[in-house]
C-alpha cells in the first residue's frame, strides 16, 4: 500500500468491499481498507458450531423475481447450498404459551386476517406515496389501526411479529409505513427466500467478490491494501485531505475516506471526527434506527421436536410480544445435527444479550419445555451472538423509523467534505439487507469517483449546513 493512498475505506463488510472494488475497477487502485476485525465480512459472519457452519449474521438470499439478485447469482455460481424457506407450514406449527398446538383452522383464520391487513397496509402506503399526493407518513401500527384489526392476542401477535418484526427487527409502532412497505427486496428479487447453509458459509460470497480485485492465495486475501485488526478511532479532515488514526497508534493520510461502518457505530463514540460533523449530519445519524436481530443456536444430544416435511419453522405465542417467538430446525440443511435456533429482536434481544449464557439457556429451556414437555435434554452447546453490545456493530441492521424524512435520509449518505459515507443504512430500497450494502458500496464509490475525476462534482456538499 502506498503511504498516502487516494482513498481509505473504513470497514471490510459488504459495502466497504464493494466500494473498494468499484474504485479499483475505475482505475483508482491506490486504496487502503482498514478493518477492525480479524477477517472481512462484518455482519456476514459464518462460524463453526459443533462441526457445522452456521451464520451469525446474514443467512437468506432472495431470488426468483423480475430483477436478478447479484448475491443469489454468486451463490448459484459457487454452488452454495441454499434451501427454499417454506413458511407455509407455520399454520400447523404455532404453540400456545402453556403448551399444545393451536388448532390449524384457528391459525388459518388468524393468518388470513394478517394477510388482508398486510395487503391493506401495502395499498395504503401506495396511496400515501402516490405522485402528486405526497401525504404524511404513518407507522405500520397506525396503518393497522386504520384497518381496525390490531393484533392483541398472543396468537395474533406472534403472527404479526412474523410479518413485521421478523423483517424489520423493530415493532410496527416505530417502523415507517411509507419507507418500509411495499418491501422492494421481494418485489424486485422475488418472494422466494433461500436459506444459505453451506460449509463455506455466506462469507464465501464476499470472499469471491474480494478475490476479483485483491491479491489472494486460495481463499485467503493477502493484499497490502487490506489491513485487518485496525480499529479506527479518529478521522481528521480538512479541505486538503484526511488523516485516520487507529487504536494501535498508526496514522494514515489520504485524499478521501469512505466510512462504511454501521449507523449504530456512527451513533456511538468509537470514531471521533475532527472537526465535529455538522449538526445536520449528526442529526441524520442519531435519528435513524439501528435494530437488533439475534439468532441463538442450540445443539442437543438428540432431537425432540417434530421433523420431516412442513415442520421447519415453528412459532411460540406468548402474552409478551417477541418472547422467544420464531424457531427453526436444521434437519433438512444439516441432517442429524440436532441444531435448533430461535430468533429474538429489539428490546427482547437487548435484554437477553445482557444476561449470562446460563440464564438465557434457562429461559429457553422453560419455553421448550412448554412446547415439548419436561422430558427433554439440556443442550450440550449454546451460541449467543451479541450484536448490540459489540462495539463494531452496535446492532444488526438499520430500520427506518416513523418521522424520519426522505430528506434526512439523503443527508445520512451525504458526504461531509472529503468524508464519504456508505453502508446498508445509506441505501433505502433494500434497507437492512446485504443487497443494500452491495448497492450502497457501488453508489458511494461512484459518487466519489465523479468527484475525483471532475472536481466540480465535489462542491456544494455543505448545502445543508444551515438546516
Ligand atoms: P458491516 O457488515 O457492518 O461492515 C462494516 C465493517 O466495518 C465491519 O466489518 C466492522 O467490523 C467494521 N468496523 C466497524 N467499526 C470500525 C472501526 N472503528 N474501524 C475499522 N473498522 C470498523 N441481510 C440479508 O440480505 N439477508 C439476511 O438474512 C440477513 N440477516 C441478518 C441477520 C443478522 C443477525 C444480521 C446482523 C444481519 C443480517 N442481514 C441480512 C443484514 C446484512 O448482514 C447487512 O445489511 C450487511 O452485511 C451490512 O454490510 P455493511 O457493509 O453495510 O456493514
Major sheet strand order? 7-19-20-21-18-22
User: CATH homologous superfamily name of the domain at 7-43 and 202-288 and 400-458?
Assistant: FAD/NAD(P)-binding domain
Bound molecules: flavin-adenine dinucleotide
The first-to-last residue Cα distance is 39 Å
Which stretches of 5+ consecutive residues score pLDDT under 50? 460-467
The number of distinct helices, counting runs of at least 4 residues, comes to: 14
Report on the architecture of this protein:
The protein is an alpha/beta fold and 467 residues long. Among the domains are: 7-43 and 202-288 and 400-458, FAD/NAD(P)-binding domain; 87-195, Polyamine Oxidase, Chain A, domain 2, CATH 3.90.660. The protein contains 14 helices and 24 strands. The strands form 7 sheets. It has a 6-stranded mixed beta sheet with strand order 7-19-20-21-18-22, with helices on both faces. A 5-stranded parallel beta sheet has the order 11-2-1-15-24, with helices on one face. A 4-stranded mixed beta sheet has the order 14-13-12-16, with no helix packed on it. Strand 9 (216-217) and strand 10 (220-221) form a beta hairpin. Residues 460-467 have low confidence and may be disordered. Flavin-adenine dinucleotide binds next to helix 1, strand 18 and helix 14.
Structure, briefly:
The protein has helices at 14-25, 70-77, 104-128, 140-147, 154-163, 165-168, 184-189, 203-211, 263-267, 279-286, 346-353, 357-372, 406-413, 434-453; strands at residues 7-10, 31-34, 46-49, 52-55, 60-63, 82-84, 94-95, 192-196, 216-217, 220-221, 226-227, 232-237, 242-246, 251-254, 256-259, 272-274, 289-291, 293-299, 313-316, 326-329, 339-345, 381-383, 397-399, 419-421. By secondary structure, the protein is an alpha/beta fold.
Amino acid at each position: 500500500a502506498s503511504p498516502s493512498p487516494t482513498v481509505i475505506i473504513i470497514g471490510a463488510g459488504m459495502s466497504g468491499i464493494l466500494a473498494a472494488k468499484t474504485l479499483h475497477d475505475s482505475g483508482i487502485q491506490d486504496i487502503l481498507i482498514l478493518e477492525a476485525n480479524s477477517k472481512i465480512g462484518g455482519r456476514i459472519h459464518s462460524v463453526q458450531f459443533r462441526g457445522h457452519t452456521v451464520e451469525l449474521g446474514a443467512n437468506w438470499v432472495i431470488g426468483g423475481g423480475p430483477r436478478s439478485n447479484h448475491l443469489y447469482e454468486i451463490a448459484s455460481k459457487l454452488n452454495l447450498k441454499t434451501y427454499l424457506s417454506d413458511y407455509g407450514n407455520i399454520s400447523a406449527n404455532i404453540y400456545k404459551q402453556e403448551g399444545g398446538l393451536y388448532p390449524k383452522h384457528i391459525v388459518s383464520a388468524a393468518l388470513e386476517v394478517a394477510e388482508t391487513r398486510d395487503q391493506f397496509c401495502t395499498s395504503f402506503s401506495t396511496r400515501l406515496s402516490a405522485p402528486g399526493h405526497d401525504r404524511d407518513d404513518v407507522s405500520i401500527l397506525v396503518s393497522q389501526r386504520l384497518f381496525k384489526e390490531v393484533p392483541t392476542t398472543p396468537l395474533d401477535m406472534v403472527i404479526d411479529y412474523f410479518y413485521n418484526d421478523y423483517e424489520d427487527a423493530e415493532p410496527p409502532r416505530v417502523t415507517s409505513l411509507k419507507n418500509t412497505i411495499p418491501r422492494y427486496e421481494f418485489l424486485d428479487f422475488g418472494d422466494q427466500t433461500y436459506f444459505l447453509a453451506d460449509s463455506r458459509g455466506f462469507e464465501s460470497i464476499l470472499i469471491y467478490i474480494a478475490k476479483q480485485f485483491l491479491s489472494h492465495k486460495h481463499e485467503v486475501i493477502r493484499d497490502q491494501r487490506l489491513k485487518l485488526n485496525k480499529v479506527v478511532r479518529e478521522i481528521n479532515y480538512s479541505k486538503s485531505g484526511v488523516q485516520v488514526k487507529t487504536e494501535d497508534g498508526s496514522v494514515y493520510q489520504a485524499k478521501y475516506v469512505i466510512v462504511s461502518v454501521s449507523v449504530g457505530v456512527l451513533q456511538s463514540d468509537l470514531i471521533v471526527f475532527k472537526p465535529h460533523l455538522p449538526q445536520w449530519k449528526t442529526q441524520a445519524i442519531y435519528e435513524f434506527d439501528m435494530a437488533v436481530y439475534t439468532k441463538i443456536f442450540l445443539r442437543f444430544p438428540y432431537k425432540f421436536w417434530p421433523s420431516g416435511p412442513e415442520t421447519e419453522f415453528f412459532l411460540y405465542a406468548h402474552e409478551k410480544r417477541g418472547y422467544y417467538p420464531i424457531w427453526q430446525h436444521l434437519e433438512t440443511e444439516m441432517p442429524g445435527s440436532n441444531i435448533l435456533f430461535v430468533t429474538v429482536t429489539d428490546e427482547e434481544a437487548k435484554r437477553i444479550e445482557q444476561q449470562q449464557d446460563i440464564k438465557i439457556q434457562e429461559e429457553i429451556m422453560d419455553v421448550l419445555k412448554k412446547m415439548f414437555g419436561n422430558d427433554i435434554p439440556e443442550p450440550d452447546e449454546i451460541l449467543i451472538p451479541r450484536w448490540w453490545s459489540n462495539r463494531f456493530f452496535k446492532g444488526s441492521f438499520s430500520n427506518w423509523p416513523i418521522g424520519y424524512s426522505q430528506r434526512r435520509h439523503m443527508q445520512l449518505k451525504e458526504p461531509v467534505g472529503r468524508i464519504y459515507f456508505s453502508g446498508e443504512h445509506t441505501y433505502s430500497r433494500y434497507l437492512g439487507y446485504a443487497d443494500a450494502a452491495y448497492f450502497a458500496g457501488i453508489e458511494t464509490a461512484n459518487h466519489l469517483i465523479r468527484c475525483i475525476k471532475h472536481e466540480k462534482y465535489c462542491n456544494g456538499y455543505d448545502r445543508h449546513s444551515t438546516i
